[in-house]
Structures
1.
Amino acid sequence: MIYVVLGVILILIIVVAAKGIRIIRPFEKGLVERLGQFRREAEPGIHFIIPFIERITKVDLRERVIDVPPQEVITKDNVVVTVDAVIYYEVSDAFKVVYNVRSFELAAVKLAQTNLRNVIGELELDQTLTSRERINTKLREVLDDATDKWGVRVTRVEIKKIDPPSDIMEAMSKQMKAERMKRAAILEAEGYKQSQILKAEGDRNATILKAEGEAEAVRKVAEAQKYKLIAEAEGEAQAIMNVFSAIHKGNPTSDLIAIKYLEALREIADGKATKIFLPFEASSILSSIGAIAEVLKTQDTDQELEE
């Protein structure tokens, strides 16, 4: 009988000792209470408490997420949209999260829903649909400030979806289609305009090149003609110089000069001229020509008499 009692006592001691051992994991923090009063915080590791007198509450310090149920929110332009969001948070003060708020997650959800109405109520529909980052940042700042006294830090808030009414979605779809068609028409017009501009520039450049080519051809022809005239003039000048030099070297008589002058007159007249104007300086030459004519006439008379 004594052994049975001792065995029971031993078992009770073991059970009581086991209830007095508590293990705090690395991502947790413990709050130790003694007879309903807060005594201390327990860091990760093994801790011993007095059974039935002390108790320990474990607080998870890891980042957690709260799903905010979808709710209807009215925008600034009186459009009702359904918004769904999620909140990421982590405990920064285990004492406050246990003793300053009874149910943090429920309080955070209600706070997020209220502030969603306030934030989106300041925006129009188009801004609401295109400003998710702005809404996330604003909502996180509001929630972080409000939950600071609860020992919680809101790390980020994400809007999962924003659903406008079906009729608004249909109108937006039509508007987007119209915008796309408008952009397509503008791009097509811009393309046609650009093609016409390029074509006009091409025609202009072709005309300019053609004119430049013709001008270059005219210049080349003029240069060739100029070269020809210069060459002919130089040839004639050289010929005159050669003739003049030869005449002076040969010391010609007046009779020879007169004969050459007559030949020149014949070339000038060419059988077509009826009148020839001679310069005053030709009088000496004409007298020589008369003398030659008299000589020739005398010779002809002598021949007739002999016959």
2.
Amino acid sequence: MEFTAEQIAGLLNGDVEGNTNAVVTGLAKIEEGTPGSLSFLANPKYEEHIYKTESTICIVNRTFKAERLLPDTLTIVKVDDAHACFAKLLDIYNQMTKKQPNIEQPSHISESATVGEGLYLGAFAYIGDGTKIGKNATIYPQAYIGENVTIGDNCTIHPGAKIYQDCIIGNNVTIHAGTVIGADGFGFVPDEKGVFSKIPQIGNVVIEDDVEVGSNTTIDRATLGSTFIRKGVKLDNLIQIAHNVEVGQHSAMAAQAGVAGSTKIGRHVMVGGQAGISGHIKIADQTQIVAQSGIPGSVKKAEILMGSPGIPINDFKKSYFGFRKLPYILRKLQELEDKLKLISKDK
């Protein structure tokens, strides 16, 4: 990567203040900038760093006005939205570093599989019988794609990801390293002696377009039918999605969240880290679940829920104010009981 300030301004419809020929070859946070790096400033909390950064170019909002002298070596590119523009540059950088079409060896593509043009397949990757891979797929080393899997166009499967048989992946999907798609759901039934027998899990997982799944996340196949991850969903690392769950369009979950079987999560739902959602319930569209909350029953209207069991956040805050004072209240109660005993003795 090598860009001049003038080229960056052209890409972002920005204006240069400083050396239009200044060159950058890498990206860095403004507080960690080095000569030759490109940074951005969008949050006023980080403004102090722009006056001492060693970055060569910094993208700022048009509204930015320096309160003191900037480094002589720093060139400014002013844009309408510094954060969005820097994200655009990151995407350009990502495209530039993307693997070029190639099939490395050793790797395995079944004779009955079909793959689209533009495939990059890393060493020790495996594509099973009857599987269909769309155009411009990037499949990194040691990825496993089982039998009769369908993967759409422009998908990226990172190292060590596993996609079990019969699963369906849409277009523009990214699955990060170590993730498992389509493992058996947790289906067991005890007999009269309490011995568990396995219920065969013969469904699949369907992931629609524009989904991103973080590393070491697991999405279990359905017992019957499908586990659905709908269009535009974003899943963080280390998330557990159980069998027959449905996650609605454009919902997002943070790390270590877990959803039990057959739960239906609506659209535009946000789930914080380490939240737990029980099985066989429904979560209304646009619900927000705060980190570490537990949701044991259905949520019928959009609310911000906190605590375990989750309750409306304002109710939780009021309750928290109360139970924070419990030691004080108990001490006072004990003092009152002691006084009552003394009064009783005096009588």
3.
Amino acid sequence: MKCVFSRKGFDSSSGGGPSPIVRGAPLSLPIPAGKGMPGVSYASLGLSRHVRAASGGKLTGRSKAHADPAFTDDGFCLFGQCGAAQTHLENQGVGPGDLFLFFGLFRDGKQRAHHRIFGWLWVEDVVRHGDPAMEQLAEMGHPHAVRPHSTNDAIWVGRGVTAHSCHPELRLSVEGGPPSLWRVPAWLERAGLSYHDKPERWSGEGVLQSVARGQEFVTDLGEDDEAHEWVHRILALMP
């Protein structure tokens, strides 16, 4: 099984600042919709106040959001990807049966911003550009179906939920360090992570210097029992 650490939501370059933690739970703010691209207002998502604060007033409730990944009330997730990031997923062999762990940049009040996992998607299907099922997803308003971004647009579909707490095990960034410095389980260093091939990124003591940019980082759990136990423990923290 492949596991994808998938970076999503606001940060300093997409939106202007970290997403907030609200009533003890991470609230991932969708990035702004690109110029001329489909989107829904932040007000319609109930995010006016949060997006104004996170963007330093550059965005308001009237601004359009790229609402992706989209989590449904009945426990499903629709996640669109395209371009180089989609090609990377394909080249890594990611498909049905694999898992996305969505992470982003968050801040609780005035505390230092950090990376944390805020949701997951267990892939059941991949709907690609030109598939008849894209029409149904367009009717649901998914931006990658309403107006495909490129010819390799795809929407990853499956069970998925968001976190309802800020459990310490969902935090990636080390305490007191920069967001990009992660504390990771031993199995991940054994398995490796795409875009993180340089040995100097791994301390050998459970610390990883993650790359500054990038969206989809893929690892293969293989037959590593510790890896599978870790994944199921993380999912259990986001029921």
